Predict the structure.
Amino acid sequence: MSFIAGLLPIYTFEHVGDLYCARSLVDGTLILPVEEDEDNENGFVLVHWQGDEARATQVQGVFLASVAVARYAEIHSVPIAAGTKNEYAHMAQHFRFKTGASLAMGEPDTERTLIEVLSNASRELGKETVRAIVGAALGKMV
């Protein structure tokens, strides 16, 4: 349970009675551990969809964790995806300006971005061409 609850900012920790649970910050879904006999332990969890006890499903935790990890990776790749990087950086700066706090996922790594651009350009244009372009650009700066 602590693994899923630790997938911030998608999930968070929550106590329900004496149970240690995970709550989705996306839709309010509550995930509770299922008590199992040691001899028959399969790692099941009880999922209350959107927190609604009437809509509950018992599933193996590994299946829920697989979906949660995929979503976590997807969310954390948003700041580095080419189409969204600039907008994310702008909104992260705007959030920091308005609140004084930083987003949980941080801002895009501009050094990593430069390395990715140069790497992609080297594959497309060839290393010598990229060296010549960068050399010419740096020569103009000096």
